[in-house]
Amino acid sequence: MDFSLDEIDLGFVVNLETLREVLKSMSVNGRKWWIASDPGDAIETHTVTIGHGDPGCDDRLNTLYYRVPVFNEEMPMAGTEKIVLMFDSSIVWAEQAGLYFEGGRVFEDSLADPQSFFDPIQRALLAKLLFITARTETERYVDREGRNNREEKRNHASG
């Protein structure tokens, strides 16, 4: 499926390796997220499917599957883990509506599904981004301080 970048307000561009790492670390009320499609098919389908619920359960009740667009036109030389995905709620779509059993009947909840799927992933990706940014800034600070200390010692030794 084609998607338009014009539809995006704010999203995450993430490779499959990083997304998989983030998803594996997540669990909310016993529900997990996982890569549910074969990444080897991602270039052909232009999507990767992410499951949300219980990955060991074949029952469609309480399980969601969303398709996330892939940017790559060709398989990356480094393999499927380097496939680049665009994660934004305006261009990610449900394969099927989630089904829920309550009070003896089955129903869909089209408002709660996207929220329970997207919000935790977006928070986790943001936390990952903040961690990487803070680590990078710390490394820059340490490197800058180390350089300043070496220059001070050199100036003191020559002075």
What is the spatial order of strands in the main beta sheet? Answer: 2-3-4-6
- From the N-terminal CA to the C-terminal CA, the straight-line distance is 69 Å
Which structural class is indicated by helix and strand composition? Answer: alpha+beta
Question: Fraction of residues in helices?
Answer: 25-40%
* Largest sheet, strands/sense/barrel: 4 strands, antiparallel
**What is the succession of H and E elements?**
EHEHEEEEEEH
Q: What is the helix tally? A: 3
What distinguishing features does this structure have?
159 residues; alpha+beta; two-stranded antiparallel ribbon; 8 strands
Architecture overview:
- By secondary structure, the chain is of the alpha+beta class.
- The protein has one domain (5-158).
- It is built from three helices and eight strands; from the N terminus they run βαβαββββββα.
- It has helices spanning 16-24, 42-45, 112-158; strands at 12-15, 32-35, 47-53, 64-69, 84-87, 93-96, 100-102, 105-107.
- The strands form three sheets. Strands 2-3-4-6 form a four-stranded antiparallel β-sheet.
- The chain is elongated and about 85 Å long.
- The termini are far apart.
- 17% of the residues are buried.
- The mean pLDDT is 83.
